[in-house]
From TrEMBL:
One GO BP annotation of this record: GPI anchor biosynthetic process
UniProt pathway: Glycolipid biosynthesis; glycosylphosphatidylinositol-anchor biosynthesis
Protein's organism: Papilio machaon
UniProt topology in membrane: Multi-pass membrane protein
Alphabetically ordered keywords of this record: Endoplasmic reticulum, GPI-anchor biosynthesis, Membrane, Transmembrane, Transmembrane helix
Keyword Transmembrane part of the UniProt annotation: yes
Chief location of this protein within or outside the cell: endoplasmic reticulum
Protein name from the UniProt record: Glycosylphosphatidylinositol anchor biosynthesis protein 11
């Protein structure tokens, strides 16, 4: 949590709440779907998924949620006078934003994949999205 801008000796409750939010958005859905051992292997890159859209979505959710929280921490040192820039509010917003972006990209990809059967021109866009895979 120190990488997200957490105070070292203060704000224990806020740090615990951010940890709980990140766990609920990243680890818990993957553990519920794939099991503990497979989830840890997927998160640490030991095991790769093979064209499983749900596992791909969950791993991308985890990656973009953590990246969003980390990018949210960038605004913390800019100005301490505004209430939305105090620890851990930017990290909350970044984590939820990263999770939302990941879900929107997954829905877009699935919609394009299903529409590619009807409109063959969309196969090019689907192939580009398959090459741009965050979790490989």
């Amino acid at each position: 949590m120190i990488l997200f801008g957490a105070p070292f000796l203060d704000s224990h409750e806020e740090t615990l709440m951010l940890s709980a939010l990140l766990t609920l958005l990243t680890v818990f859905p993957l553990v519920a779907h794939a099991g503990v051992e497979s989830a840890m292997q997927l998160l640490f890159g030991v095991k790769h998924f093979s064209r499983n859209t749900i596992i791909e979505m969950l791993v991308n959710n985890a990656l973009l949620t953590v990246c969003g929280a980390w990018l949210g921490a960038v605004v913390i040192p800019l100005d301490w006078n505004t209430p939305w820039q105090k620890w851990p509010i930017p990290c909350y917003l970044g984590a939820i934003g990263g999770h939302l972006i990941s879900n929107v990209l997954t829905i877009l990809k699935i919609s394009l994949m299903s529409a590619a059967d009807k409109y063959p021109i969309l196969n090019f866009i689907v192939s580009v999205l398959n090459k741009f895979n965050l979790s490989k």
